[in-house]
Design a protein that fits this description.
alpha+beta
Length: 683
């Protein structure tokens, strides 16, 4: 996408996992400081001096604004192009052009690379006036990258490859939550050909001015700050001495000087994060996947350096292929997928434990749950397309929790804990719920999660065209299928994944989920050679579908609930009937639903149901895969694109938004945007 045509509400820059995730919440890169996806400042500063005239191009040279600093000219930004794995900004004036490219190589077919906590900043500088120029290029990186809040401390040091900040390991995997950033580990900057420094933010500001602005006026011999200069913090941080962030804003500084001629100049930096241990997994602190074969962090950094050229080539090839497929459906659809890809992948952490993969999501901007089943469910289209092993990694923590005896109920659980502590389900079990109701199951999603687990396993099985994962977990899947036989057709007063809308009885869309899950279970049984059992569950699914088509119909379309005739809803769960070719619902059902949906559009999308004008972007897109109707697909895509382009809410891609005005209803930076890829998914 090109910002000359499309303005993303927030732009991904460094996106590796839920903790190492940096965005620009502004149209121009110099309009604001860079921020963690939660909106908390984690600044990177970029400035360059062209023949001693200083220009800012990344963030703000005065990002904390606690004391006035004049700042410098802004190098005008002329474009911003967001692709699935990279974001490219272009800046230029009459003298030079600067191309700045942020790349997080989250390639789904290379789990070692996907897990590697390393991202790249590439820059290319070209003269536009035909002259040679002396260039000084500066980057500054905040100690905020490795603390949860600015009252915490970091120390600086160097090794043979990098300069780094560390907050140690005293706080490692001690706390959890949604609005929570990493507060342990080590943030590294690798900058080939650069001078490397660690100093206070104020001294970094002074350094740029002293190196360039003061030298422009050689007759000014007096220190420009005067004889009573302010206390500006250390000019150079003492190695291993701890500094509070809000005392002096410790900053890692890289500085490169070169002569720019007609050949231009290109170089790159590498940002790496060593989190030491990544997830607490049922009481044990476990490693990231990239350590599986014995590599340590030094090896990781060296690989990140050595493989730069090959990684950039692979990134370009992946992006070209994905965008070609998306553009064949719609250029605006390609824009949506470009913005969604890194968000969907980097909302997970990839780990390895006890011989199996974990690809644990964080339920961002909701409650911070880890490995949430009804977050996994909408996200899986992206991962089923490119690597179903990652979907198994999403499900493994749930199966492991049950295997350890930490889930006593007959229905499927909702989550495995609160990120980054996967120690057992938390949803619905907090004290605030027990104060009002004695029943701890009131806040659960029994039909929802049973259906989700079965359908996710079905997605894996039919994507891989093998059924060993189904057979491995057959006993639990059968237990959940039997639960749906007993409870699923006409669900009682309970929550579904759209829990922000509250409890609902007789939910027709939830009933569809149960029916499709039973149909998918039967199809997996049949593929596994269990024909008799398959026929049994298939007959039940067909019986339920026939009853549904009669009882949910109000004469023109199908209702929100069985008992409310003047209602409607998006039956997004019905997409599995199409994807898996279950043939449980008649084509007449689809025709009626399509006509209903087309009649309820607002300026920015299709409401989720008749109760409100908000919608979910994942469910909107899922509904397009139910119909072979380009007009309807474009109605959804064009309005979603318009929302993103116009919303004043400068946040990572929200999936819960109003359709009558370009305002987000809630949620941001969530993995569920993997569901937008559903139109590329074929079994």
């Amino acid at each position: 996408m090109d910002n000359n045509q499309f303005r993303a509400p927030a732009v991904p820059l460094i996106t590796n996992d839920p903790m190492f995730s940096l965005w620009s919440f502004a149209t121009n890169l110099t309009d604001d400081t860079t921020r963690h996806w939660t909106g908390v400042r984690q600044f990177i500063i970029g400035a360059l001096a062209v023949d001693d005239i200083v220009y800012e191009f990344l963030g703000k040279v005065n990002p904390v604004n606690t004391r006035y600093f004049t700042g410098y000219k802004i190098l005008p930004q002329t474009s911003c192009s967001v692709r699935p794995l990279s974001t490219e900004y272009t800046f230029e004036n009459e003298i030079i052009r600067l191309e700045l490219i942020f790349t997080s190589p989250l390639l789904p077919d290379d789990l070692m690379l996907l897990s590697r906590p390393a991202s790249y900043i590439t820059y290319k500088i070209t003269p536009l006036d035909g002259k040679e120029h002396n260039i000084h290029l500066y980057f500054g990186f905040s100690g905020e990258f490795c603390v949860n809040d600015e009252s915490q401390e970091v120390y600086a040091c160097t090794d043979s490859r990098s300069i780094y900040f560390s907050s140690g390991t005293d706080h490692m995997l001690k706390r959890c939550g949604d609005d929570h950033r990493i507060e342990w580990g080590t943030f590294h900057v690798i900058a080939p050909g650069h001078l490397l420094w660690a100093m206070s933010l104020r001294q970094f500001q002074f350094r740029i001015r002293q190196n360039h602005t003061n030298t422009s006026y050689p007759s000014n011999y007096q220190d420009y700050q005067g004889p009573n200069r302010e206390c500006a913090g250390p000019n150079e941080l003492i190695q291993y001495e701890k500094y509070k962030i809000n005392d002096c804003y410790p900053t890692l500084v890289t500085e490169e000087e070169f002569l720019l001629d007609e050949n231009g100049w290109e170089n790159h930096l590498i940002l790496c994060y060593d989190d030491v241990k990544s997830i607490q997994y049922f009481g044990e602190n476990i490693d990231a996947y990239w350590k599986k074969d014995g590599d340590d962090f030094n090896v990781l950094m060296q690989k990140a350096i050595d493989e730069y050229d090959s990684i950039m080539k692979r990134v370009a090839d992946f992006e070209e292929d994905l965008l070609a497929r998306a553009n064949a459906l719609s250029p605006k659809y390609a824009d949506l997928l470009s913005l969604a890809y890194r968000q969907a992948v980097a909302g997970h952490k990839l780990t390895w434990h006890d011989g199996e993969l974990q690809f644990s999501s964080k339920e961002n901007y909701s409650n911070g749950c880890i490995a949430t089943v009804d977050v996994t469910y909408p996200s899986i289209p992206l991962f089923l397309i490119y690597n179903p092993e990652l979907v198994k990694g999403m499900l493994n923590p749930i199966f492991k929790m049950i295997e350890k005896g930490l889930w006593p109920y007959e229905f499927a659980p909702h989550d495995a804990g609160t990120y980054p502590l996967a120690n057992g389900q938390v949803y619905g079990f907090s004290f605030k719920y027990f104060r009002h109701r004695k029943d701890p199951l009131f806040r659960q999603m029994p039909v929802e999660e049973c259906g989700n687990m079965i359908l996710c396993v079905a997605g894996v099985s039919f994507a891989e065209k093998k059924f060993d994962y189904f057979e491995k977990h057959y006993a639990l899947l059968k237990q959940w299928a039997d639960y749906l036989v007993n409870i699923g057709y006409d669900p009682e007063y309970q929550l579904c994944t759209d829990d922000f809308a509250g409890h609902l009885a007789h939910n027709c869309n939830l009933s569809v989920k149960a029916i499709c899950a039973l149909g998918a279970f039967a199809k997996m049984l049949d593929a596994s050679g269990k024909a008799e059992d398959a026929a049994h569950y298939r007959a039940i699914a067909e019986e339920f579908a026939a009853k549904w088509m009669e009882n949910a119909f109000n004469g023109t379309h199908y209702q929100l609930t069985f008992d409310q005739p003047d209602t409607w809803s998006i039956k997004y769960n019905m997409v599995w009937d199409k994807l898996l070719d279950l043939k449980l619902f008649s084509e007449e059902v689809y025709a009626r639903e399509l006509a209903c949906y087309k009649s309820h559009f607002n300026a920015y999308g299709l409401p989720l149901d008749s109760r409100s004008d908000y919608t979910k972007t994942d469910w909107e897109m899922w509904s397009t895969a139910m119909f072979d109707d380009k007009e309807y697909f474009d109605m959804i895509v064009d309005r979603m694109w318009k929302f993103l382009h116009e919303t004043p809410d400068r946040i990572p891609f929200s999936d819960l938004l109003f359709t009558s005005a370009p305002i987000e209803r809630g949620f941001q930076a969530r993995t569920v945007q993997g569901g937008l890829f559903i139109n590329l998914l074929k079994f």
